[in-house]
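Usage

Read records sequentially. Each one opens with the input sequence:
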Amino acid sequence: MARRRRHSAPHPVRHSGRPHDRSELEDRQAVPGFGDESELDLRKGFADGFPNGQYSVTSPPAIYRDLLITGEAVPEAAGPGPRGDIRAFDIRTGKLAWQFRTWAGDPKENRTGVNVWSIMTVNTDRGIVYLPIGSATYDFYGGDRKGSGLYANCLVALDAATGKVLWSYQLVHHDLWDYDLPAPPALVTVKRGGREIPALAQVTKMGLVFLFDRVTGRPIYPIRETRISSHVWKSQGRFTPWGTGLTLVFPGTLGGDTWPGGSFDPARGYLSVNTNEIGAVRRMEPQPDGAASRYRRTRRLRAILGRPSTPVPAAAVGRAHGYRHQYGSLRPAGTAGYY
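and closes with the structure output:
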């Protein structure tokens, strides 16, 4: 929902055929000049080809000057669907100001996913909006999307006024684990080599924290990339390829950090993070000819084991962590507790 600061009435923004909070808007005065009779339908002209496809707004939009910048939730199942592009609208008129195409592949594929379902971060002083982008569909099978799959699983910095890419860094190449970037990157300051570096701290489902120079996109600390063998199906912890036999991946799709993100204390140099210690046990099942994907990941252990099961292991816990990087190294500062 967009708000115009000079007026008390909010702009309703449609995303699935109906405006947000209609009951709260009925008694309020519409703002003339915004969208179509004070409403903006985000599906119109964008997701028209998929009238039954999911297209919803799961996080508040980012605001930069007079621009409303929004992501969306789109289908994660196999098959074509609405794209996950990021769009900016003039907050006074509702007109499209810019659009960033998140999938660098063939647009005719109608590849869905590659969206920002979480929250974007705006560095207003520098005029930069940072996008934590999710994975491409189908999340767990990549035979029809060979290559690294830009801009899936990327942290992307855009010129907030124009939508131009300033830099990007892909944290997972050719994602098969639904390791979306799940939270807004935190604006932090790192002291290293006698100078203060304006930085970004990006937490992940993998349980890893990445620090980047927020202006150049260069990693503050070296990032080691590891090639994963497609022929080894036993558990390798994170980045274990899903197999046709029962496969344990840890952390799973709910593991590491998710929505909460991190909180930075500039006085002490602490980055506080909540994490989930949750794995996933699933397998890939072949699909019949003509299916949208050659393989699908089973959703429930019951289908594999033949008996009821709980989606979260009894041993799964969450922790609140503190990391201190003020003095040039990223060190655990303690665990605040369990939940």
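Summary fields computed downstream for this record:
- The two ends are 33 Å apart (CA to CA).
- Residues 22-25 form the longest helix (4 residues).
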